[in-house]
Amino acid sequence: MKQVKILGPGCRNCETTARLVAEVADAQGIAIELEKVTDMAAILGYGILSTPGVVIDGKVVHSGGVPDRKKIEGWLG
What we know:
Strand content: 25-35%
CATH topology: Glutaredoxin
Order of helices and strands: EHEHEEH
Structural class: alpha+beta
CATH architecture: 3-Layer(aba) Sandwich
Largest sheet: 4 strands, mixed
């Protein structure tokens, strides 16, 4: 099971990113544990200055803007 964290204050882009990651994981049959991190100190601890950020299995894979489906597929695949 992959550990996925969406980093951000809960804005529309953060919610969209979380939804897209969940949809792609479901479509690929990949089990994920999705966590939304809204605490700014925790977000800054990952070195993210622009949200939303995406962390998969402890590694920052994205920050700033909503990622496209193909990128998400690559991260999870």
